[in-house]
Amino acid sequence: MPEKNILIAGLGLIGGSLARTIKSGHPDYHVAAYNRSQAPRYFAIQERIVDEVSDDFDALAVKADVIILNFPVQLSIQFLKTLATLPLKDNVLISDSGSTKLEIVTAAEEIFKGKAIRFIGGHPMAGSHKSGVIASDELLFENAYYILTTSALSQPADFEELKGVLVNTRAKFIELTAKEHDAMTAVTSHFPHVVAASLVDNAHDFAAIMPFTENLAAGGFRDMTRIAESSPDMWTEILMSNPDNIVYQIDQFSQKLADVKQLMLQRQSAEIWDFFDNARKLRAQMPIHKGAMENFYDLFISVPDKSDVIHEVLGYFAGHDLSIINIKINETRVEINGVLQITFKTENDQATAKRLILENSSYDVYQ
Ligand SMILES: NC(=O)c1ccc[n+]([C@@H]2O[C@H](COP(=O)([O-])OP(=O)(O)OC[C@H]3O[C@@H](n4cnc5c(N)ncnc54)[C@H](O)[C@@H]3O)[C@@H](O)[C@H]2O)c1
Ligand SMILES: O=C(O)C(=O)C[C@]1(C(=O)O)C=C[C@@H](O)C=C1
């Protein structure tokens, strides 16, 4: 008998990454995964990320000692409602990985009222703009903060138990109330995604006036907007789940932009210098977590607009066993060329691929 039965419900980026860390940290545990669609289930079994997969949530849930829900928040609340109707194991411990906490913790307190069910809302503060189990990574949470929320549904011993299950995430666990969590993550995560998407939208609008604009988006624009490629499903849910805190950040930020605008209109160069210098110093002091998803390495290849170009470029890699995570053709405003974006899992593979493309073609390659 395995020491614990774990259910990972939702085999996407986060569910897949958690499953990998739990399995590698506890080879004796039985890790099962629920996913509605077949492809991620098949992938997870093939890759030995989990021991068992099924599209029958209820059947897996009743066998589980620990259940972690890895869905958009509203869907996780639906699954909590289902769990409340099932004959679960006596001492089952339920958690989730959603990006907002007040809504689900409040719902859990209501749904599980009077039941012997332990619930701890969780949120690993690491991720990616990529989705799906194929992008999952055992190192994703290393050194990241992993927030566990305090509520009426859990005791200190429950936190220790969950941390034990998640020990191989190598994350830094902290306890916060759901309210504290939502206020702070609005500043450092939710609102920045609104800004990134707005920057892309703004550049696209301006390109209607000056079509070459988007070609001049270089490193600065790329660093500011990587997260604009994130899942719209996930981010709509997050904005709908934490509106007050995010709207507050929009108001604060609008005032900051208005202040800079005034300094510029009044040509106050000394104050503008201070503004940048202050930000530079503050940024340098921030304990910004370098997530393992820095381990996604993109190449951008300027390719001619022809149908077999992906096949052609992949042909250059033959016999090199490169770990490709994602391939995408981005249209450009200029109709002669497209940009082929290939994402690799390692820096080595990225460098090998770049060399092979440059050796075999005359295409420009950017990182
Ligand atoms: N991506 C990140 O950077 C990140 C980081 C931390 C936390 N989170 C949170 O983790 C949770 C999962 O996000 P993810 O990035 O793994 O997303 P994902 O898109 O990679 O995975 C989502 C999972 O939900 C399942 N799902 C979606 N709709 C469904 C439905 N109607 N019925 C059944 N299953 C359904 C999908 O099959 C998939 O398994 C979200 O709440 C997100 O806010 C995301
Ligand atoms: O690295 C990214 O792409 C992310 O957006 C990850 C990120 C964030 O840093 O905002 C996004 C949502 C989460 O809930 C946690 C982490």
Structure, described:
- Pathway: Amino-acid biosynthesis; L-tyrosine biosynthesis; (4-hydroxyphenyl)pyruvate from prephenate (NAD(+) route): step 1/1.
- One of its GO terms (molecular function) is NAD+ binding.
- Keywords: Amino-acid biosynthesis, Aromatic amino acid biosynthesis, NAD, Oxidoreductase, Tyrosine biosynthesis.
- This protein is α/β, with parallel strands linked by helices and 367 residues long.
- It has three domains: 172 residues, Rossmann fold, CATH 3.40.50; 104 residues, 6-phosphogluconate dehydrogenase C-terminal fold; 71 residues, Alpha-Beta Plaits (2-Layer Sandwich).
- The chain is 46% helix and 18% strand.
- It is built from 13 helices and twelve strands.
- The strands form two sheets. It has an eight-stranded mixed sheet with strand order 3-2-1-4-5-6-7-8, with helices on both faces. The chain has a four-stranded antiparallel sheet with strand order 10-11-9-12, covered by helices on one side.
- Helix 4 runs parallel beside helix 5.
- The chain is globular.
- The chain starts with a strand and ends with a strand.
- The mean pLDDT is 93.
- The structure holds nicotinamide-adenine-dinucleotide and prephenic acid (PRE).
